C-alpha cells in the first residue's frame, strides 16, 4: 500500500475522534435546552468521551499485539457507529454520557492500531514524517467538524450530527476492509499477561517522559475544546455558524506548523523540534493570561487560542515518533499506554476546568498554564533521547 494512501486511510480512522468531539460542539446549547440542563453539564460529555477513549486504548492495545489490526479497527468503528445511534435517540443526559464512553471505546480500539502500523513501516525521523503527514490530513477533521455541525443544525437538529458520525464510521470501516492489508501479529508468546506487557513498556523512563509531554500538550487543546462553547458562544456571544468558523481558524496555524515541522525534520532532530514547539505553546498560553486579565475582545483572543492549539501540528507527530521508536516489541501496548495517558490527562484536565467554571475564562486558561509548565518539566534532554528498545 502506497505511503500516501496509507496516511490518508489512517488519518480517516483518526478523524473519527475529532468528529465525535468537535462536530456537536455548536449544538451543545440546543442539547442543553432539549435535555433541560445547563451548558456546563452537557459539556461534561466531552470528558466522558475522552475517558472512554483512554479505556478503549488500554483494552485494545494488547489486542493489537495479539490479533489482526485491520479487524480490530473495523470492530472499533462499528462499535463507534452503534453508540452514535444510541446517542442520537437518547432523551436523558445520563444515557448520552454512558453511550459516549462506549462510542469512545470503539474509537480507542481503532486509533490504538495506528502507531504500531506506522512503526511497522518506518522509524526515527521517517516515522515522524509519516506521523506528520497523517496529522496534516487528520487536522482537517477538527477544523471542519464544528462547521459541519453548524451546517447540519441549519437543516436538522443535534441528533442529526450523531447520525452523521455513525454514517462516517461505517464508511471508513468499509474502506479499511477493502484497502488495508492484514497485518502480522507479534511473535511474542500470547501467554504473556496484559499487565506484564504494560509493566515492560513502563520500564523505559525516557519513553515515559515523552508520554507525559504528549499527554500535557494534547490536554491543552482538549481543555480548549471542552470549554470552547462556553468561551465563544456563552462568553463572547458568537452564533453557531460563527462559532464553527472561529473554531476552524485554529487549522491555519496547525497546518502551517505541521508542514514546517515536516520540512525541518530533514535537518533537525525531532527531539529539538518538540522542545521548540512546547516552548512556543507556553508563550501563547502566557499571552492568553494577559488577554484574559485585560478582557480582550474575541478578535484578539482567538489569536492566542490559535497559537496555543496550533502547536499541536508539531507536538504529537514528534512526541509520538520519539515515544514509539523506543520500542521494538509490545508496540500495541506501548501505543495504548501513550493514547490512554493523553486521554486520561485530557479528561481530567477538561473535567477540572468545567468543575471550576465560574462564568469567567480563568478556569480553562489557568488549567492550560499548569499543563504547559508540566510539559516543559517532563521534556527529556536530547542526550537522553536515544533509541532504547523494550
TrEMBL record:
InterPro entries: Efflux_drug-R_Bcr/CmlA (IPR004812), MFS (IPR011701), MFS_dom (IPR020846), MFS_Efflux_Transporters (IPR050189), MFS_trans_sf (IPR036259)
Membrane topology: Multi-pass membrane protein
Endpoints of the signal sequence: 1-20
Pfam families per the UniProt record, alphabetical: MFS_1 (PF07690)
Keywords: Cell inner membrane, Cell membrane, Membrane, Signal, Transmembrane, Transmembrane helix, Transport
Keyword Signal belongs to the record: yes
Listed GO biological process terms: xenobiotic detoxification by transmembrane export across the plasma membrane
Intracellular or extracellular location(s): Cell inner membrane; Cell membrane
GO molecular function: xenobiotic transmembrane transporter activity
GO cellular component term, pick one: plasma membrane
TM ranges: 39-60, 72-95, 101-118, 130-155, 161-180, 210-230, 273-292, 298-315, 361-379
Major subcellular site: membrane
Keyword Membrane found: yes
Annotated Major facilitator superfamily (MFS) profile domain residues: 1-387
Family: Belongs to the major facilitator superfamily. Bcr/CmlA family.
NCBIfam families reported in the protein's UniProt record: efflux_Bcr_CflA (TIGR00710)
Name by which UniProt lists this protein: Bcr/CflA family efflux transporter
Amino acid at each position: 500500500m502506497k505511503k500516501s494512501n496509507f496516511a490518508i486511510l489512517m488519518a480517516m480512522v483518526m478523524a473519527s475522534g475529532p468528529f465525535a468531539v468537535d462536530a456537536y460542539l455548536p449544538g451543545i446549547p440546543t442539547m442543553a435546552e432539549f435535555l433541560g440542563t445547563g451548558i456546563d453539564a452537557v459539556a461534561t460529555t466531552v470528558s466522558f468521551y475522552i475517558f472512554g477513549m483512554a479505556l478503549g486504548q488500554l483494552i485494545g492495545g494488547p489486542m493489537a499485539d495479539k490479533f489482526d489490526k485491520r479487524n480490530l479497527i473495523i470492530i472499533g468503528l462499528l462499535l463507534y457507529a452503534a453508540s452514535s445511534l444510541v446517542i442520537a435517540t437518547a432523551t436523558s443526559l445520563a444515557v448520552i454520557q454512558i453511550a459516549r464512553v462506549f462510542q469512545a471505546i470503539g474509537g480507542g480500539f481503532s486509533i490504538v492500531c495506528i502507531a504500531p502500523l506506522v512503526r511497522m513501516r518506518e522509524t526515527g525521523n521517517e516515522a515522524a514524517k509519516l506521523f506528520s503527514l497523517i496529522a496534516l490530513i487528520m487536522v482537517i477533521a477538527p477544523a471542519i467538524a464544528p462547521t459541519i455541525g453548524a451546517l447540519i443544525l441549519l437543516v436538522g437538529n443535534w441528533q442529526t450530527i450523531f447520525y452523521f458520525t455513525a454514517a462516517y464510521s461505517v464508511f471508513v470501516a468499509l474502506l479499511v476492509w477493502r484497502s488495508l492489508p492484514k497485518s502480522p501479529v507479534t511473535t511474542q508468546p500470547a501467554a504473556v499477561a496484559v499487565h506484564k506487557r504494560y509493566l515492560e513498556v513502563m520500564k523505559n523512563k525516557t519513553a515515559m517522559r515523552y508520554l507525559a509531554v504528549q499527554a500535557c500538550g494534547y490536554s491543552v487543546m482538549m481543555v480548549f475544546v471542552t470549554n470552547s462553547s462556553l468561551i465563544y458562544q456563552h462568553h463572547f456571544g458568537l452564533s453557531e455558524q460563527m462559532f464553527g468558523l472561529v473554531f476552524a481558524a485554529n487549522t491555519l496555524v496547525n497546518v502551517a506548523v505541521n508542514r514546517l515541522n515536516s520540512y525541518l525534520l530533514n535537518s533537525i532532530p525531532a527531539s529539538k523540534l518538540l522542545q521548540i514547539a512546547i516552548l512556543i505553546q507556553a508563550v501563547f498560553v502566557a499571552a492568553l493570561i494577559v488577554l484574559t486579565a485585560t478582557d480582550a475582545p474575541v478578535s484578539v483572543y482567538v489569536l492566542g487560542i490559535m497559537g496555543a492549539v496550533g502547536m499541536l501540528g508539531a507536538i504529537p507527530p514528534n512526541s509520538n515518533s520519539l515515544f514509539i521508536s523506543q520500542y521494538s516489541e509490545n508496540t500495541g501496548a506501548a501505543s495504548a499506554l501513550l493514547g490512554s495517558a493523553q486521554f486520561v490527562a485530557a479528561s481530567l484536565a477538561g473535567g477540572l476546568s468545567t468543575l471550576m467554571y465560574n462564568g469567567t475564562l480563568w478556569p480553562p486558561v489557568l488549567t492550560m498554564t499548569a499543563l504547559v509548565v508540566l510539559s516543559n518539566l517532563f521534556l527529556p534532554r536530547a542526550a537522553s533521547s536515544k533509541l532504547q528498545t523494550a
